[in-house]
Amino acid sequence: MEVLRNDRTRDGFNRLHGKYLKRCLEVLPHSLATLDVSRLTIAFFAISGLDLLDCLHLIEPQKRDIIEWIYSLQILVTKNNESGGHCGRHGFRGSAANGMDNPYDCGNLAMTYCALSSLLILGDDLKRVDKKKIIDGLKEHQLSDGSFVPVVYEKENDMRFVYCATTVSYILNDWSAIDRQKIVSFIRNSFTYECGFGQSPGLESHGGSTYCALAALTLMGELSQLSDKQLSSLKRWCLFRQTNGFQGRPNKDADTCYSFWLGGALKLINGYHLVNTELNTSFILDTQDMITGGLAKYPDSIPDPMHTYLGLSGLALNSINNCLLTVNPALNISERAVKHLIQLHSQWNDN
Ligand SMILES: [Zn+2]
Q1: CA distance 309 to 262
Q2: How far apart are CA 264 and CA 238, in angstroms?
Q3: How many CB atoms lie within 10 A of CB 151?
Q4: 247 C-alpha vs ligand 1 centroid, how far in Å?
C-alpha cells in the first residue's frame, strides 16, 4: 500500500514528520514537562525517527552539540566522588533535571540504552563511553531471578530492563558481566498460559513485554530456547492482537506503538508476512497530525514523540514503505546505524 495520503509526496511526508521531530529536540509543550527527567528518551525518539525518515541532515548543524550533551549525561564515578562504593552507578542519567553528583544521581539502564543508540545513529565512535565501567555496573542491576532493575536503588524489575541490559551488552560487545542463563530462565518463566510474555512471571501477556523478551533472546542468540510449539502459539497470540492497528492486550483499543512492539515481535519469529499491512498502515496514517506533524496514540488525538517514533518504526518494518529506512527489529534502530555498529565492533576486535 502507498504510505502517503492526501496527495503529499514522499518528501512532504518526510518533511512534515521530520520538522515535528526536530522541534522535539528544541522545545516541548508544557504537557510533556514531567518527562524532563528522562529527556534522553525523547532525544532518542527524535534522533532515531529523523534517521528512519532519512532526515538527519535537518539536525546536521546541531549534531556536535547533541553528541556533547549526551556525553554530559554520562556518569563517570571516580574514587573521590563515589558514593556507596558500588559500580552500579555508572551509565547515563536521563537529564540534569534532578541535579548531578548527588547520591541519587545514578546511571539508568533505559537511559544508557537510549544514549548508546542515539550516539550510534549520529555516527559517533563511542570512544568516550566508559565501556568497562558500564559493563561492570550491569552486574549490580541483575537480580537473582535473572531480571534487572533500571537503577541500583530501585526495585522495579521487569522485562523492559532485561531488554535494555541485553542491548547495552550487545552494543558494547561485551557479555561478561551478566548471567545469560538466568536471563533465559526469567524469560521462559514469564511465558504465560495465553502464549505471550508478561513483564514478570505470573503476569498477563503484554505486547511490550513480548517484544522485549523476544528481542532479548534474539540479541543473546538464544531464540532457539523456545520450542516450535511455543513459537507457533506466540505467532498466533501476536497476530490476534491486530484489529486494524495492533492492541497491546486482548480487548484493548489499537494503539500506534504496538504496530512496532507486536510487528517487531512477529519479525523476530518470522511471522510478519501474516500481518495485514494495509490495515496497519492505514491505522498509523490516521493518527498523523497533518498540520503540526507527528503521530498520536489514537486517531484524532495529540501527537507525542514516543508514538511518532514507534509509528514510524512500525511502518519501517514493512519494506514496501520505501519512504523510510529499514529498521532492525531487535535493536529498534535503522539497519544503517547497525552497519555502523558492526564496523565499530570489528575495529574494537582489531585493537
Ligand atoms: Zn502506546
Answers
A1: 15
A2: 10
A3: 21
A4: 9
Instruction: Report the distance separating Cα 316 and Cα 323, nearest Å.
Output: 9
**DSSP bridge partners of 328:** 333
Whether residue 100 has pLDDT greater than 90? no
Q: How confident is the model at residue 319 (pLDDT cuts 50, 70, 90)?
A: confident
Q: How far is the CA of 225 from the centre of ligand 1 (A)?
A: 29
Least confident of 85-94, 123-132, 294-303, 304-313: 85-94
The CATH class of the 10-350 domain is mainly alpha
How many Å lie between the centroid of ligand 1 and the Cα of residue 186? 25
Helix axes 159-172, 109-121, angle to 10 degrees: 40
All three cell numbers of 162: 532485561
Q: How far is the CA of 307 from the centre of ligand 1 (A)?
A: 6
Evaluate whether 117 touches 181 at the Cβ level (below 8 Å): no
CB 319 within 8 A of CB 329: no
Q: Ligand 1 centre from 318 Cα, in Å?
A: 19
Alpha carbon of 234 to ligand 1 centroid (Å): 21
CA 29 from chain centre, in angstroms, equals: 23
Distance 80 CA to ligand 1 centre (A): 43
Span from the CA of 114 to the centroid of ligand 1 (angstroms):
18
CA of 208 to the centre of ligand 1 (A): 9
Within 13 Å and on the Cβ side, how many CA atoms surround 201? Answer: 10
For residue 9, how far is its CA from the centre of ligand 1 (angstroms)?
A: 27
The 10 Å Cβ neighbour count of residue 315 is 26
Query: Could you report the per-residue pLDDT of 35-50, keeping only the tens digit for each?
Result: 888 999 999 999 999 9
CA-to-CA dists, residue 231 to 214, 235, 244, 269, 271, angstroms:
10, 6, 23, 7, 10
**CA-based nearest residue to 113, from 91, 96, 133:** 91
Burial code (b: 16+ CB inside 10 Å, e: under 16) for 240-262 equals: ebbebbbbbeeeeebbbbbbbbb
Q: How far is the CA of 257 from the centre of ligand 1 (A)?
A: 4
